[in-house]
Write a structure and sequence with these properties.
single chain; alpha/beta; 9-stranded mixed beta sheet; 36% helix; 22% strand; disordered N terminus; transport; Solute-binding_3/MltF_N; SBP_3_CS; Bact_solute-bind_prot3; Glutamate ABC transporter substrate-binding protein
């Protein structure tokens, strides 16, 4: 009788041990990427609602310049396209997503700023964009100063609307929405008079079939936006590898191809590929 009790206890312990091992295996999988490739998956943060940059298509696939850049970089780190897990990272949560380890890197129209560099490290830049305004085609807004007493939309966590208010139109009525898609819908309905963010983002929306002919870019260069790939603060190994990948992407022509594929339909006038570490103020 005593032997049976010991045997049962041992069996129970073995089951618990095997269960814990299985669970531990799931937790320790290289889901965010090791930075040197070879993991089962690498998690990369992107936007889901930015045509031409980061867009989740109806069939579940992803498209855009940021997606193409991140895919190229991931390959150089040792990950095939089917090993990438795309994670939606909204503007207000990018720093937190990296700090928590939710993603290995973020390529999501992530402008390099001194304030952000206190929290994350940036590879790049890989694109120089400019802040602009998107308005209706019949709008009388042609300059940033015309936004005084007008309703101006940008997304929560973005510095674009505040930049306009501080420098050009202090009486602008700022409206912050969760996504750029909401801002564009507000512009279409008349709830806001203009949307401000980077010209690359605005051009992508203006070129969409459902919006063609409704909107126009004001053509203003209100700021320089140096897009970088964000990584967790202190992850210099991954940072160096991403920079080398970006340099290779430019040198082998893949960068130019990605620009034409994603921005060509919108007739977007892009700047030449920036050099790594060359931040245009």
């Amino acid at each position: 009788m005593k032997l049976r009790k010991v045997t049962a206890a041992a069996a129970a312990a073995l089951v618990l041990s095997l269960t814990a091992t299985a669970c531990g295996g799931d937790d320790d999988s290289d889901s965010t990427g090791s930075g040197s490739g070879g993991g089962d998956k690498i998690k990369i943060g992107i936007k889901y609602d930015q045509p031409g940059l980061g867009l989740k298509e109806p069939d579940g696939s992803f498209s855009g310049f940021d997606v193409d850049v991140a895919t190229y970089v991931a390959k150089e780190l040792g990950y095939d396209a089917d090993q990438i897990e795309w994670v939606e990272t909204k503007s207000a949560d990018r720093e937190n997503a990296l700090a928590r380890g939710d993603v290995k890197m973020i390529a999501a129209t992530y402008s390099i700023t001194d304030e952000r560099k206190q929290k994350v490290d940036f590879a790049g830049p890989y694109l120089l964009a400019h802040q602009d305004l998107l308005v209706k085609t019949d709008s009388d807004i042609t300059e940033a100063t015309d936004l005084n007493s007008k309703k101006l939309c940008s997304v929560t966590g973005s510095t674009s609307a505040q930049n306009v208010s501080d420098k050009f139109a202090p009486k602008a009525q700022l409206k912050e929405y969760g996504t750029y898609s909401e801002c564009i819908a507000g512009l279409q309905s008349g709830a806001v008079d203009a949307v401000t963010t980077d010209d690359s983002i605005l051009a992508g929306f203006a070129a969409q079939d459902q919006y063609k002919g409704q909107f126009k870019l004001a053509g203003l260069k209100l700021s320089n936006e140096n897009y970088g790939i964000g990584v967790k603060k202190g992850d210099t190994e991954t940072l160096d590898k991403i920079n080398k990948a970006l340099e290779k992407m430019v040198s082998d022509g893949a960068w130019d191809t990605a620009v034409k594929d994603n921005f060509g339909p919108a007739n977007y006038k892009n700047e030449p590929a920036p050099k790594i570490g060359d931040i245009v103020q």
